Amino acid sequence: xxxxxxxxxxxxxxxxxxxxxxxxxxxxxxxxxxxxxxxxxxxxxxxxxxxxxxxxxxxxxxxxxxxxxxxxxxxxxxxxxxxxxxxxxxxxxxxxxxxxxxxxxxxxxxxxxxxxxxxxxxxxxxxxxxxxxxxxxxxxxxxxxxxxxxxxxxxxxxxxxxxxxxxxxxxxxxxxxxxxxxxxxxxxxxxxxxxxxxxxxxxxxxxxxxxxxxxxxx
Length: 218
Fold this sequence. Notes:
218 residues; 7 helices; mainly alpha
C-alpha cells in the first residue's frame, strides 16, 4: 500500500498530542484518508462538469485564522471545564465573561509567569472610540491551563495576535459546559422533588385505604 507524508501545523500537532496523552487516538491515517477521498471525489466530479461537490468540500474545510483561533479557544475551554475545573471555578469564569460583555471589556494582555494566569483589559466606550487601558488585573481560577494562554498570546504566522479572541472563546467554551451542567443539576433536583411528591401522595393514599378498611368491616 502506498505511503503519503502529511504535514500539519505545530499547534494542531500539540492539540493532537494532548488527546493522545488522555488516551484518545483519532487515528490520523484514517482521518487523512477519509478527507483525501472526499477531496479526490470532488475533483473527479469537477472534471466531469459538476463543480458543486468541490466547492462544498473546500468551504467545509477552509477556515480563516480568526475562525481557527476561536475554535481552538472554545475547545480548550470545554476540555478544561469537563476534565479539570471545579464548579466554583466555572462560576467565576461565567461571572467574568458576563462582566466583559456588560462593560465592553477586551483582553489586552495575559501574564502566565506566576502561579496564576492574570489578565489585563481595555474598555471600549463605543465601537468608534479609542479604548481605555484599565489598571485592574483579573486573576483566573487556579486550575486554568497556563499553556493555553501561553499559546494564545503568541501571534500567528502573519504576526497577528488573536489573544482577545482566544481568551473570550475559552471562557465561552467553559461557560457552555457550565450551562449544560446547571441544567442537568436543576433537572435532577426537579426529578427528586417530583419523586418525593409522588411518594408522599402514595403514602397518603395508602393511609386513607387503611383507615377505610375498619369502617367497611363495621
